[in-house]
Amino acid sequence: MTTSRLLAACTSALLLSGLVACAPPEKESGGGETDSGVQVGEATSAADFGGMDKLVEAAKAEGELNVIALPPDWANYGTIIDTFSKKYGIKVNSAQPDAASQDEINAANQQRGKSTAPDVFDLGQSVALANTGMFAPYQVETFDDIPAEFKDPDGTWVNDYGGYMSIGYDSAKVPPIANVDDLLKPEYRGKVALNGDPTQAGAAFSGVMMVALSQGGSADDIAPGVEFFRKLKDAGNFLPVDPTPATIESGQTPVVIDWDYLNAAETKKLPSWKVVVPPGQAVAGYYYQAINKDAPHPAAARLWQEFLYSDEGQNLYLGGGARPVRAEPMQQAGTIDKAAWDALPPVSGEPVIVSVEQNKKATDYLAGNWASAIG
């Protein structure tokens, strides 16, 4: 669940768990041609393979898929990985599950040309849009179901799942929380954690944006959010610990600012854990799915995308409390898991989705001001 995601080093920096940066190349990135004569790493749809059956055949021949930064408790990724692996008989190598979005890009650069490089990415907005040159365009079979604002026209990146920023808290350890301002009260001294570093992790970025909106800021002005965290730190309430299921269940992080689907997942294991989406404007956000253009298993990477955007894959995201990007057409078709949809945390505020331009402005502000605010 955490997005702290540090890469240590073989010699001085960069040792990935199950993905060793200093290891010699085992083989070059995957290649070969499809039946239609297209290079596998350049295939832009299942049609380039001759259809889904041929794509499945090519992916099975590769036999493996490398994913990174996918915690089992994040948007149901543990079940998603297991289901994909069993469905297609493909081994999924899951490296550094607690890594941040930027660490995914770092790993791909460090591992380029090696069989251990990530095949696919799951990224926050700012990191994804800053690295589109590393992605391979691909349109899944359900591509037309996905609203235009949630995808690049050629499939270089596509939103996969999303949610609303929330506050989770252990009602057995702290008083009820109704809004962001409550977090400054002395009852929460040393208890308020943010999921990651907002200059590197999408969840933390959106957490600061949520706070900014509550303090009179806007998607164009994240400064009030940074100032609130300065006050939180000065009051002794900010807890500089990246939350995980373990820290929540042990009581180490009794208050967590994170996506609603991650906080909601904890209610299944800790009945006293409550989730509130603060009233007023509600920060909504989607993660970005992309294929590494240098993927060592290019067919498996493309099959993974097809799976994630199928009804089965989208309902698996929903089973983890995340809102699938194809929710509306699936509702219309009657293929959505209605019970899981109805169980999502209530949201009363007006949704706010940060635009590309607003994201860049906020990212630049955080880069120049976050460290001094909480340092």
Automatic annotation (TrEMBL):
Pfam families: SBP_bac_6 (PF13343). One of its GO terms (molecular function) is thiamine binding. GO terms for cellular component: outer membrane-bounded periplasmic space. Residues 1-23 form the signal peptide. GO terms for biological process: thiamine transport. Keywords: Signal. This is ABC transporter substrate-binding protein.
